[in-house]
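Figure 3 (text version): structure tokens given as input.
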């Protein structure tokens, strides 16, 4: 079978990838009965993809035996590209921990260097994610990683990582006709820093296809993927709003003589900050190469975009930013509410009880200044939590994102929320913040970060400019919380 070849795009001068990446998340689903796929037979199937130019494969540490299968593929086709993800549980990220995680990826893939190591982190309240990224950067310098990517990062934390000097090349996030969050602040961040998106979920688990056009809302769904994207449909305005978008895409598909899935995916591909889309494969069961390559045989015109824009107007915007579905309400995941999962994340700070005062609890960061100056990061008395003035400090004394007040504010607010959480509160319990700036010109940028986090709860706030702060900091913030019943 002769198949036209897909387009390619350069992530760097030395790394060119297929604009359709072959995703291997379905390997885990195929192995749910406990029996791994035959790695050689599965690799033979993937070899056909590589031969046709679909030579960029995306996987993760938890996608069953996907990495092992790709190791066999690389023996046959060493020119293929292996992109994998490391998804560690939150906790201290020592150099040894990070190196062990990367070493496991290298061993399973059977390679000396990972082409793209993508890092996932559950909760930014635990600051170790930035430590991990810096260690990944060191491993890149050592030649064990070709390039660094992240997954499900929002615009603020992608900006923070870049402002702190981490050479992030890609961010893998959900992108579709229904989930257009990636066209907002994240697009601006990508354009500013030259980061490219790797898009998944472009057909919403199959909901953006002819099969569902005009169909009634289903009562039961057969798989986790559809359960997940059904939640996206509900968040985007419900079944009727979704059907309007699907109908618009179907009309465009008929015009260009392609599939609805082609139209849905092409719209994502045409966003300038998207490098490629990830389309799943079930090795040995399905072959989508012929349909995938049709993405490059047509382009949407202004009339097509106008039709889609009209349909978009009848939908609701998915709340929050990219990746928020894993961290905040509403949890748009297959299993729904992830509060129980996030509550298991280790506290970012050590807590103790004040000697002689059992009703007083304290959160300690371990900074030497807490001993020198006699203070704690946060103190809880009854239902009240008071958080000390907090700066963007990593480890003992490293200034995070020097010269970037917005990035520093993101890091500071995360630390404040982490301290409140360690003492039993939540972000919604924060009732007052006080912001100190060294340059009043940073007011708008800092306020925008504050508004992103506190826009719904709206605590009392004060912002003032000061002559100087101890250390090379542009912003310092203190906060108070009252733990709700």
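Below: residues designed for each position.
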């Amino acid at each position: 079978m002769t198949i036209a070849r897909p387009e390619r795009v350069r992530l760097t001068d030395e790394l060119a990838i297929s604009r359709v990446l072959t995703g291997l998340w379905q390997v885990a689903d195929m192995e749910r009965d406990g029996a791994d796929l035959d790695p050689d037979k599965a690799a033979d199937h993937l070899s056909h993809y590589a031969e046709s130019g679909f030579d960029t494969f995306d996987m993760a540490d938890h996608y069953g035996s996907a990495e092992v299968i790709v190791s066999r593929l690389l023996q046959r086709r060493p020119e293929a590209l292996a992109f994998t993800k490391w998804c560690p549980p939150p906790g201290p990220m020592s150099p040894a921990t990070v190196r062990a995680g990367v070493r496991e990826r290298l061993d399973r893939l059977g390679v000396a260097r990972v082409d793209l190591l993508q890092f996932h982190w559950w909760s930014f309240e635990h600051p170790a994610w930035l430590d991990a990224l810096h260690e990944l950067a060191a491993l890149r310098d050592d030649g064990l990683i070709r390039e660094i990517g992240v997954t499900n990062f929002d615009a603020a934390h992608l900006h923070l990582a870049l402002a702190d000097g981490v050479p992030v090349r890609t961010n893998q996030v959900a992108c579709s006709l229904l989930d257009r969050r990636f066209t907002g602040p994240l697009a601006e961040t990508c354009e500013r820093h030259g980061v490219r998106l790797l898009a998944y979920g472009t057909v919403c688990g199959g909901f953006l296809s002819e099969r569902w056009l005009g169909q009634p809302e289903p009562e039961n769904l057969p798989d986790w993927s559809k359960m997940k994207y059904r939640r996206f449909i509900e968040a985007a305005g419900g079944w009727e709003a979704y059907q309007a978008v699907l109908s618009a895409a179907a009309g465009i598909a008929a015009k260009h003589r392609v599939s609805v899935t082609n139209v849905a995916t092409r719209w994502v591909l045409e966003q300038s900050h998207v490098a490629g889309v990830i389309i799943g494969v079930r090795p040995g069961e399905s072959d989508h190469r012929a349909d995938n390559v049709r993405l490059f045989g047509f382009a949407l015109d202004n009339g097509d975009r106008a039709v889609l824009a009209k349909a978009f107007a009848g939908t609701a915007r998915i709340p929050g930013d990219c990746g928020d579905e894993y961290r905040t309400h509403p949890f748009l995941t297959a299993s729904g509410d992830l509060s129980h999962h996030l509550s298991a994340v280790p506290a970012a700070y050590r807590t103790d009880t004040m000697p002689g005062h059992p009703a007083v609890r304290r959160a300690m960061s371990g900074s030497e200044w807490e001993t020198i100056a006699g203070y704690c990061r946060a103190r809880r008395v009854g239902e009240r939590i008071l958080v000390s003035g907090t700066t963007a400090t990593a480890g003992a004394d490293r200034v995070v994102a020097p010269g970037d007040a917005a990035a520093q504010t993101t890091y500071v607010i995360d630390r404040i929320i982490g301290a409140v959480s360690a003492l039993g509160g939540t972000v919604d319990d924060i009732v007052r913040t006080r912001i100190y700036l060294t340059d009043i010109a940073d007011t708008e940028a800092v306020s925008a970060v504050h508004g992103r986090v506190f826009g719904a709860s709206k605590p009392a706030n004060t912002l003032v400019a000061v002559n100087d702060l101890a250390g090379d900091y542009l912003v310092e913030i203190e906060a108070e919380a009252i733990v709700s019943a």
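The first helix runs from residue 26 to 30.
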